[in-house]
Design brief:
heterodimer, A: mainly alpha, B: about 400 residues, mainly alpha, two-stranded antiparallel ribbon, 16 helices, globular
């Protein structure tokens, strides 16, 4: 290789290095960062994340109960045996729609519907059984018509119904500071469920079962 | 219909409030019980657990929780079910594979009265002559049927009290030297020996017990002298595909496959033909100069190179599934994998952060300490640590 060629190579290499250095200073500094003052905070402008990206990035350390865990949990809370024929019949119908694993991020509306169906059957069996329902509401009088049982002038019955449901079904999984608001949700539900119902004792049972189902199918029961 | 939708709306609205936020110790006891058993504890049990937690003793609280039969009947059973089938699906029948693993976990921690050595170290899951049956069942165990286990599950058998330890060699007709833990159970045979070329057994044992699928072990620097004759050397007419892709997995997995040369699954049962390589292994000959299996010898080609990091600690060659199972179970990767799986199960997250990975390593070390391989202790320590720090 002659001297002339070497000169060209050095020249080429120098230009390439210079270009590289200039490139470093123009492309490797994040364009989203601009220093406004020595002690000013650095502002970064980033493309907003989609809801899916945010969800994916979240680290969750709670899970939902799987199909079999749900079956036994509802049994433990209501006292209705998981082998009860009616419960088993509903469970066999909805089993495939209940969660397979504890992955919270893959919990779908279909899971919640299946859970509500199973909870409704457990509540139905529990409330139809005098011994079991008295374990929760020892003073409950199901001989009352709905107007007598739930009218606003008789708040004690409504209060007992809701308070004891929360205590037995949710235990320490509901925050004390949230309980007044949670209780109000269930009280409002009692009012809503009364609309259009005949004023008899059968309606009283139906309303209690509805409130029971809402409480039993909430995440306070199925989150672990 | 209006009422149903209103009830659903309210149940969802109630769910919007933060779950798990009661008084601290009680709440922790409640979570710990739910994580370990899948069901809420009774007030009496939560009282005991809370008292331990107040003392700072989360492990004692966890030990109290696992006295509930649902630790075995729900948590462990469903956890292990997904290991027992190709689809890794927990929605399958209870079976001999699951019963054996659950039984081994139940009995872990017991020690021999004379030698003080552990009588049920969990590493035996891949080489021990162990079979758990369910006591008091009308349907007897059979080597060619799952009825015994399916009926036991349907009858609501209590897996904490009803599992009885026996040996496979006394039950399934295989000679003692051919028994290799859960690999030779009927369910494993049905899923991993049936049809195919017996490569599937090792792949799923790597997935289930070492937490490594073959893609992760891919290493084209391993010599291809152990790649079998049924592997095409120029797939699609391009030998580069073989050299850059096929070799990466087959050089290692084919070297190990010989361990299963005498096993098959016929008429509902695992079969073993000592000294005779099953026909399906050698049937296809795409490249005559490739390796031909002539006996049940195996060698671990992944003991060198990048996969040496799995921590192989015993002999790296041998004959038959039993010695292969021992090598897998005594590797560091086995202990780490078990710790990872338990962490995922009771902490409800993968160990991704640096801190969590360090916890898993520490749990793995504790798990294998003194070759105790105490799975129950691993559950207790892991769950206690997670719930205490949440």
């Amino acid at each position: 290789m002659n001297k002339n060629n070497m000169k060209h190579i050095y020249k080429f290499a120098s230009i390439a290095l210079l270009t590289g250095i200039v490139g470093l200073f123009t492309h490797c500094v994040p364009e989203t960062t601009k220093i406004e003052a020595i002690d000013a905070p650095i502002k970064e402008v980033q493309a907003p994340k989609t809801e899916g990206e945010v969800l994916l990035a979240l680290e969750v350390s709670s899970g939902v109960k799987s199909y079999e865990e749900t079956l036994y949990t509802l049994s433990a809370l209501t006292g209705v045996a998981d082998t009860n024929a009616n419960v088993r019949s509903v469970y066999n119908d909805v089993k495939v729609s209940l969660p397979t694993d504890s992955e919270m991020k893959s919990y779908l509306s279909g899971h919640q519907v299946a859970l509500a169906k199973l909870a409704a059957e457990y509540c139905n069996e529990m409330i139809n059984d005098v011994t079991l329902r008295q374990k929760i509401w020892n003073n409950a009088n199901y001989a009352l018509t709905k107007d007598v049982a739930f009218k606003s002038a008789n708040p004690a019955v409504r209060e007992e119904l809701v308070t004891k449901l929360i205590g037995v079904f949710w235990g320490p999984s509901a925050a004390e500071e949230d309980k007044p608001e949670l209780k109000q949700e269930l009280l409002d539900l009692i009012d809503d469920l009364q609309e259009g119902e005949v004023n008899n004792t059968a309606s009283t049972g139906i309303i209690v079962k509805g409130v029971c189902t809402a409480a039993l199918s909430s995440m306070h029961v199925t989150v672990k | 219909m209006k009422n149903i939708s209103r009830i659903l709306t309210v149940s969802l609205a109630l769910s919007a409030f933060q779950a798990h936020a009661g008084p601290k110790e009680r709440e922790k006891a409640y979570i710990l019980h739910n994580r370990l058993t899948g069901v809420p504890g009774t007030n009496a049990v939560l009282d005991l657990m809370e008292a331990s937690i107040v003392q700072g003793n989360y492990e004692a609280a966890a030990e109290e929780a696992i006295k509930n039969k649902n630790f075995y009947n729900v948590t462990l059973k469903n956890w292990v079910k997904s290991w027992s089938n190709r689809d890794q699906n927990p929605r399958v029948e209870f079976n001999d594979f699951v019963a054996t693993v659950v039984g081994m976990i139940r009995d872990s921690g017991t020690k021999d009265a004379v030698t003080n050595l552990p009588t049920m170290p969990f590493d035996q899951v891949l080489y021990g002559d162990i079979l758990y049956k369910v006591n008091g069942q009308a349907t007897a165990y059979a080597a060619n049927s799952n009825d015994h286990y399916r009926n036991a599950e349907n009858a609501g058998a209590n897996l904490m009290t009803d599992l009885v330890r026996e040996t496979q060699s006394a039950n399934n007709g295989l000679p003692l030297f051919a028994i290799a833990g859960v690999m030779t159970t009927r369910t494993a045979g049905e899923n991993y020996y049936q049809a195919g070329t017996n490569r599937r057994m090792n792949r799923y044992m790597f997935i289930n017990f070492l937490c490594k699928d073959y893609e992760e072990l891919h290493d084209i620097s391993v010599p291809d002298n152990n790649v079998e004759r049924d592997v095409e050397r120029n797939p699609g007419g391009d030998s580069r595909t073989y050299l850059n892709k096929c070799v990466g997995c087959h050089a290692g997995q084919d070297a190990l496959r010989g361990a299963h040369a005498y096993y098959d699954f016929n008429n509902g049962a695992v079969t073993y033909t000592a000294g005779t390589v099953v026909g399906k292994i050698t049937r296809v000959n795409s490249f005559s100069d490739g390796k031909r299996t002539i006996n049940d010898s195996w060698t671990n080609s992944w003991a060198q190179g990048k996969n040496a990091s799995l921590g192989w600690r015993t002999v790296t060659s041998g004959n038959g599934a039993k010695s292969l199972g021992r090598m897998l179970a005594r590797s560091r990767a086995f202990s780490v994998c078990m710790a990872k799986k338990v962490f995922k199960q009771v902490c409800i997250k993968d160990a991704k952060s640096v801190a969590d990975k360090a916890v898993v390593e520490s749990l793995a070390t504790s798990f294998e300490a003194g070759q105790e391989y105490n799975m129950k202790k691993l559950f207790v320590k892991t769950s206690a640590g997670c719930v205490a720090n949440e």
